[in-house]
Structures are given as structure tokens and as C-alpha cells.
Design brief:
Layout (H helix, E strand, L loop, with lengths): L1 H5 L13 H14 L12 H12 L29 H13 L10 H15 L2
């Protein structure tokens, strides 16, 4: 099964249009790599989009600020938003909460963590 996953051109849905998540990720990656004018995810299928994502992930980043800022999608619409926040999210919250003089929450969901990070960014200027 991993062979099929490693070969997007063999996917049963590979010829379908790329997902909105693929398009957003390609746009973010292309921007951070300084090649947004050379990449158009709307002209790709799922298979091509997956391959382009892997290609872009392996290129050096030229615009270090491109990945920072607001989330690509509204956290309230995340399908995994109620899942436990990632270690990175909790780490960011902990560092910024301490800097802001706030208590550090023991746990939170991904959506709440994302919102808290944005709130603390504004408070701390981080």
C-alpha cells in the first residue's frame, strides 16, 4: 500500500482537481520559496499538486516571513480542531503566555491553541 501512496500518479483520484488544502499549501510554499509567480495550483490535478508540494518542500526558503502570520484556514473550520494541540502549538503558547504574564494552560485543542497563539502574538509582539 505504501507504494501506491508514494506514487501520486497511480492514485485512483490523481486526475481530480487538487483539494483546497493542497492549493493553499502550494501557494504558501511557493511564496516562501520565492516562486509564486511560477506555480499555479489551479492548473494541476491532485497527483501533480502532491508532487509539486514535495518538490517545493525540498527547495531552500527564500522568504523567511512567508510562513508566518495568520493560519491558511479559519481554525473554526478545521476538521481536527478539537484534537489535542500539537507539541509545537503548546510550546508557542507556553513561551508567549509566560512573556505576557499569563498562566500556561495544561492542555487545549488545536483550534483553541491557534487562537491563543494569535492573541498572544498581539500582546507580546512576538
Amino acid at each position: 500500500m505504501s507504494n501506491q501512496l508514494d506514487n501520486p500518479s497511480q492514485w485512483a483520484t490523481g486526475a481530480d482537481p487538487p483539494t483546497s488544502k493542497q492549493k493553499a499549501f502550494i501557494s504558501t510554499l511557493a511564496s516562501s520559496k520565492g516562486v509564486s509567480d511560477q506555480v499555479n495550483p489551479d492548473q494541476m490535478n491532485k497527483s501533480e499538486a502532491s508532487s509539486k508540494i514535495e518538490e517545493l518542500k525540498n527547495q531552500p526558503t527564500q522568504n523567511a516571513d512567508a510562513g508566518a502570520g495568520q493560519p491558511i484556514q479559519n481554525p473554526d473550520t478545521w476538521t481536527t480542531g478539537d484534537d489535542k494541540a500539537t507539541g509545537k502549538q503548546m510550546g508557542y503558547v507556553a513561551v508567549m503566555a509566560r512573556k505576557a504574564g499569563e498562566s500556561v494552560p495544561e492542555s487545549m485543542g488545536k483550534t483553541d491553541a491557534s487562537k491563543k497563539i494569535e492573541e498572544l502574538k498581539e500582546k507580546t509582539g512576538m
